[in-house]
Structure formats: structure tokens, C-alpha cells
Amino acid sequence: NAGVTQTPKFQVLKTGQSMTLQCAQDMNHEYMSWYRQDPGMGLRLIHYSVGAGITDQGEVPNGYNVSRSTTEDFPLRLLSAAPSQTSVYFCASRPGHPSAPLHFGNGTRLTVT
Amino acid sequence: ILNVEQSPQSLHVQEGDSTNFTCSFPSSNFYALHWYRWETAKSPEALFVMTLNGDEKKKGRISATLNTKEGYSYLYIKGSQPEDSATYLCAPPNYGGSQGNLIFGKGTKLSVKP
Known about the structure:
The structure holds 2 protein chains of 2 kinds. Chain A is an all-beta fold. In chain A, a hairpin with an 8-residue loop joins β9 (87-94) and β10 (103-104). Chain A has strands spanning 4-7, 10-13, 19-25, 31-38, 42-51, 54-57, 64-66, 76-78, 87-94, 103-104, 108-112. The relative contact order of chain B is 0.33. Chain B is 0% helix and 47% strand. Chain B has a 5-stranded antiparallel sheet with strand order 1-3-8-7-6, with no helix packed on it. A 5-stranded mixed sheet of chain B has the order 2-10-9-4-5, with no helix packed on it. By secondary structure, chain B is mainly beta. The chains are: A mainly beta, B mainly beta. Chain A binds chain B through residues 31, 33, 35, 40-45, 48, 50, 56, 58-59, 90, 97-107, and chain B through 1, 31-32, 34, 36, 42-46, 49, 51, 89, 93, 95, 98-107.
């Protein structure tokens, strides 16, 4: 039972490089989201999606793009990496109802030098 | 964006001690309150989702209560064990915003010493 799968687990980028963090879930969840975790800041919402073809911005969307072409996949794109994007990124999903708990992936640790 | 406060920020207890911490959130437009447990180097895992005023949930030695009228929830751990060491997060859905996105508090970090 895979749940929410994130790849890669670790990544080092140079300033200005672009990359995509992958997230896939096999639970047929409608809602998917990306959070970043920084020391002293807690988990902050970057982007979210309530279904295939629908995405919207969270608290800290600048510098990131998302798309949702299928129910299963929700990739996060860094367009031009900056050191401020050094963080741990978590993808999470849940069924459509907001009272349902989030299921988190194992995280991607990104360092931008 | 909702303002979610958790206290204390950190807590150090001895094995066997019972402990509790607080989550405060705006009481207006309340929908639900989530609690998550987050162990170091792992990902957050859901403990409880609470929706009703006066609700009490229990999972083993961990329990939680909810007061929606005054906007707080308590998490209790009875007889703490070293394996309870983790950060405990609370999160109400931002229902004033869109789609019930969870807005997380900064968490209470619990360390249980053997």
C-alpha cells in the first residue's frame, strides 16, 4: 500500500536551476497539496488542488508552479531555484471532505546553493 | 489566514510523566480541528480529527478535547514513554479561505527522557 510517494528524497540545486518535485498517490484522493517546512516556521502551504485540472495558490506560492493533469499526480516545479527555497517539501493528499485527515509523503529535502 | 497558536513550544518530561499541551484557534466559523504527530525524520501522521464542541477522542495513552466556543483544544499524554517523543501539530481547516486547507500551528515538541 504505497500511499503518497515523493521523489526525489534529496536534491541539491544551484541558484537559477529548475527542477520538478514529483508526488503521486494511489488512494484516489481528490485533494492534494504541497507544504514546505522551515525551522521556526512550521508547515506552510505552497499550492493545492481539489481535483484534476484545478489548482490554486496557498500561503507561499511565489517561485513555484503546479499542475494536476491526473488524479494521481501533483508535481511541484521550481522555475529558477533560489537559496530561500532551501527547505523540506511535503506532499499531502486527502479525500474531498475537509474533515478527512491528510496523508503525507516522506518529504523531499532540497538544498539550493 | 487563521492564526493558530500552540503552547508550549517545547516540553521535556521524564518517562512515566503525564503531560498536556494547548492549541488555540479562532472560534468563529469553526469546522474541524486536526491533530498530527510528527516524529523526527518522518512525515506527519494524523492522530485525531475533531468536529463537535465538547468532543473527546482517545488513541491509546493519547487523548484530546475540544472547545469550539472558546477556540482551544488540549492534547493529553498519560504516562509518557520515550517513543512519544515527537512534535505534535494542530491544524484547523481555513474554511474562511478555500477548500478547507489546513493551517498548521508551529507545534509542541515533546521530549521524553528514559
